[in-house]
Amino acid sequence: MKKYLTAAAISALMSVGTTASVQAETKFITIGTGGPTGVYFVAGNAICRMIHKEAAEGRKEGRQHGYRCAAPSSNGSTYNLAQISQGEFELGVSQSDWQHYAVNGESDKVVNDEGFRAVFSVHPEPFQLIVSADSGINSWMDLEGKRLNIGNPGSGQRGTTELLMERYGTDRDFFGLVTEMTSSEHSNALCDGNIDAFTYVVGVPNSGVAVATEGCGAQIVSLDTEVEQALIDERPFYAKTEIPAGVYSSQQNDVTTFGGYATIVSHESVDAELVYEVVRAVFENLDDFRGLHPAFANLTPESMIHNGNSAPLHEGAAKYYREKGWIE
User: Fold this and answer.
1) Which of 167, 153, 147, 162 is nearest to 226 (CA)?
2) Does domain 126-260 have CATH number 2.60.40.10?
3) How, if at all, do strands 147-149 and 67-70 pair?
4) Separation CA 237–CA 308 (nearest Å)
5) Which distant-in-sequence residues (6+ apart) come within 8 Å of 226 by Cβ?
6) pLDDT (tens digit, 9 = 90+) per residue, 44-68?
7) For residues 30 and 252, what is the distance between their CA atoms, to the nearest angstrom?
8) Where are the domains of the chain?
9) Cα 300 from chain centroid (whole Å)
10) Which residue has the higher pLDDT, 311 or 63?
11) Which sequence ranges form a coiled-coil region, renumbered to this chain (predicted)?
């Protein structure tokens, strides 16, 4: 009996040692995203899915990288950047304009940190003004006296809306009511008649926007004046963007607006091996990644490396791109 107990004890100790070893090798990645109905949330979780697909642990083939990934819902671009700067997130999704402002120290509405690094861009993100069917709003200036949701603090939606308010010379007093709802709330608020319009910076199509367009006939308004053109001329991360008719069933006409890109951002302090494995997992499974949302359908390595990435490339990302011959 003593012999068997000793053997069992040794086996248990070996098991504990093995478990501790596996746990020590497992490294966790957190990716900041956005609201649960937005494309940021899909993008972050799609990256995690690719990382886990590549992992070899428990299988005969794959990468022995040991990374595990989570992409929780968050408040969006500027919040993600703040968390990355503080070391709380390893990566995050951010609008290309806020990536630029943050790394270059050009705005007091986002954390300024020269250590931000670009990883890759994902999808185009048009700025959208979405209005109720009977609102009578056909331009930005038609918002006078109307109830507008500008987005929650910390979101890129909020930051870009405030930029446009400044350029049009329309402060909060211009509107009948200004609300600060999140992206998971504004569509229902529009259909319930609690607001007349909301702004949103998001890839197309978007399930949250569809709640308003399919649910109560909401429309997207064209923003194609000298105000938007001046922003495009001044800032290389913006471009004129077309949303074709029919993307949503209630949208009968093409919409012209402006926008940038959703980008994946990290920090120079984040380990290069970690970023390399993230990038490798996505690009080695790019066909699978494209299939996870319609906004990703036309992604190419060239567009993902060059579009909207206004911070320097992270060394881990650059290493992979050089290995593939995509950059020098």
Assistant:
1) 167
2) no
3) unpaired
4) 5
5) none
6) 999 999 999 877 555 566 677 889 9
7) 40
8) 22-123+262-323, 126-260
9) 17
10) 311
11) none
